[in-house]
Amino acid sequence: MSSVLIYNATILTVDAQNTVHEGGWVAFQDDRITGTGPKTTQPDTTPFDEAIALPGHLVMPGLVNAHTHSAMVLFRGRSEGQSLLTMEGWYNSIREPELSLISSDIGPAVALSCAEMALSGTTTFCDQYFFAEEIAQAAGASGLRAVIAYGIVQLGDKERGDDELAKAAAFIEKQRSADGRVIPGSAPTRPMSTIPRTCSALKSTWPSNTASACTCIWQRGRKTMQRPWLAMG
Fold it and tell me: Exposure string (b/e) for 84-111, b if CB count within 10 Å is 16 or more?
């Protein structure tokens, strides 16, 4: 058991009232927040295993990256001078290097992405990409929380869709972490390439406890958003 007190910092609580404590404090017990408040209510530092003064610092809940393809950090800079809204630009910048990826490329790439997210204050991310098993393993080792979805690309092929659903179900069952930090799921990659029957069948891949599903929404040929659906098991 361990206890930590962070004090003399600006505490952004993000509660219903958006309370901000200037010179405030946050207490932790076994990695759980046990209390927070203004300077006038700060507890004595003596009982804590560690007390950390952070004047001039902002303490806030971790950020959530709701849409990322963490392994694609390998492609950084490839799209300079090209438009990803053209077939040529997309293929040269994204698809061509994707076709060269192998499983051993993924772990180091995701580790780098996770380190960069942690440095920016991001503590949770949602990822859907190829090599879902390797991404989940690297995410688990990073210490971040993550929703890792097995990407399903069907392209109108029923047999392929059935195969992808079976692989998604196996991924969900295998990757569920005991501590709950990594939540596996399935991700039909764009409804335009995954027929409705496969989308409606997704729920059968979810076990009785929490799983996830997410997808990209396209409008007039442009990707507009990714919407994760959680706790739909």
Answer: eeeeeeeeebbeeebeebeeeebbebbb
At 14, is the secondary structure helix, strand, or coil?
Answer: coil
Rg of the chain in Å (alpha carbons): 21
- Report how many domains make up the chain: 2
107, 122, 184, 206 alpha-carbon torsion, rounded to 10°: -160
Per the model's pLDDT, the better-predicted residue between 189 and 51 turns out to be 51
Closest CA to 156 of 188, 203, 204, 202: 188
Examine the domain organization and report whether 171 and 219 are in the same domain.
Answer: yes
Note if the pTM is more than 0.85. no
Structure tokens at 206: 């979810």
Q: Which of 25, 43, 59 finishes a domain?
A: 59
Residue in 70, 130, 126 with CA at minimum distance from that of residue 98: 130
Q: Which residue has the tokens 């998604």?
A: 168
140-162, pLDDT tens digit by residue?
999 999 999 888 776 667 787 78
Answer yes or no: are the C-beta atoms of 71 and 94 closer than 8 Å.
no
Query: What span, in angstroms and rounded, lies between the C-alpha atoms of 224 and 227?
Result: 10
**Cα dihedral 26, 65, 205, 98 in deg (nearest 10):** -140
Cα–Cα distance, 63 to 120 (Å, whole number): 8
Phi, psi of 94 (to 5 degrees): -115, -60
H or E, element range at 119: helix 103-119
Residue 176's domain spans which residues? 63-230
Helix (H) or strand (E) holding 158: helix 158-175
